[in-house]
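Record type: ASSEMBLY
Status: queued
Input:
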Amino acid sequence: MTETSSLFLCHLEDLPEYGTRGFTLEQQEIFVIRQAAQLWIYLNRCPHTGVALNWVPHQFLDLEGQYIQCATHGALFRFHDGLCLAGPCPGTRLEPIPFKLIGNKLYLTDTEKMPTYS
Ligand code: FES
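Status: finished
Output:
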């Protein structure tokens, strides 16, 4: 990993152990899902209409904490691959953001190839 293609995002302890946290980068919004030692990062954009998934800051999950839920029309997405299982856009996927965890530091990788938020 080179310095030019990676971006420090946060420390692991900055994330709730079971939950989500949103981040606003220069050109886009992303969010991290943490389930103990497992992490996933996606672009904060619903494949249904392209809007941000959340209405409340850092809240991306359904009431049971089992799925990512879009606040606009309720689409439900799996954690591990962002696949929509229910709602108005089944079969579509959230856009994954590549990352690496080094020690307790979370880095976004391949930042030049990250999708722009438009
Ligand atoms: S905008 Fe997300 S389900 Fe419609």
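Annotation: The radius of gyration is 14 Å.
Annotation: The beta strands are 6-11, 18-24, 29-35, 38-43, 68-69, 76-77, 84-86, 99-102, 105-109.
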